[in-house]
Amino acid sequence: MNVGQKCQRFVNDQIYDPDMDLSMKNFCSQFIPDEARHGDMLVCGEKDLRSMNIFFLNGESRNLVQKDPTGSGYTCVPLEITRKIPDPIEFYNGAFNFKNYEEIDFYGIEIDPLAHNNLIKSLTNGRSAAGHKILYYFFDENEWEQGRGVFIYNEQEDKFFKLNSSIEQKYLD
């Protein structure tokens, strides 16, 4: 599978007509450029960048993937994509800097604690996160957390905790 050093962004200016007998995903799949690689982004036609307009290419299947873990239209790079990218934070650094768009709702990048164990250990003083945990990298302040970094969600407290050397082990387990 071919993964580049940085995410390429491809924009399809074709406007999707919801009255067509074709899903948005299938409509946009018609416009995947030949040079697109695993993890690259395809933006489909609209002037706001919500989850329904941004897709990521699965390089193995050549399918488009999208995810909104909030249910509110926020774009997230899913594990299906990031677990096959050695350094997803660097790969997507700068990819979400859009100009001339009315609204950009970006949630984060999902980080796999097993595939990206070295990253987790570098942030937590050599400790790992449990394999069932999903971590998120936030590029900047958002309505969930302040600042950028890798965060782990704790369901019991309904809160994100930033990974650092002093994070309590109970949040990693």
Automatic annotation (TrEMBL):
Organism superkingdom: Eukaryota
Protein name: Uncharacterized protein
Species for this entry: Brachionus plicatilis (Marine rotifer)
